[in-house]
Specification:
Length: about 190
Amino acid sequence: MNVRFLCIALLSLVLGGCLVTFDETLPPVTAAPAALLGDWTLVDDWGDTRLLRIERIGDNRYRAHFTRQGPAASKAPATDNGRFDFTVARHGERWYFSARLPQGDAGRYLLGGFELSAAGELLIYSLDVARLRQALSEGRLGAVPGADAPGEGLWFRGPLQPLFAYLDDPANSDAFTLAAHYWRATP
């Protein structure tokens, strides 16, 4: 499965194929903001329109349906259309989401951030692998790294809680990189 397109489907979490993965997901104890639900759109670098529909599928569980339309879409792999389930959590001033990677990735999970603007925008943030590697080498994460993730990624074993103290600190906002900028789709 094409990891880059998979992660675009997971709300464009990945930049350049570098993943930060975790053994645990966010537990489904927090409800997403109501404004997250519904239809979103963006135009990608190839001029194709990416459509994203987010819906509730159970108690604090959500599904992102995505499709791609346009000239490059006809040449895109089948993984460019699909759906992914996710959960959300709010820690400090940040919203996070987590989604399971495909079966071939040892049951690990992605973690990303998101913001909803008053102007009807959905901003999706990925975790910056280089920044987290640096913080890990300096002993500032309180997390245990696993073996190297595929490619240039980073894998954390164990619970997510020790990592949130680092990520929630506004001084570490550079641990996040804007990955996608969606707008509310108009009917």
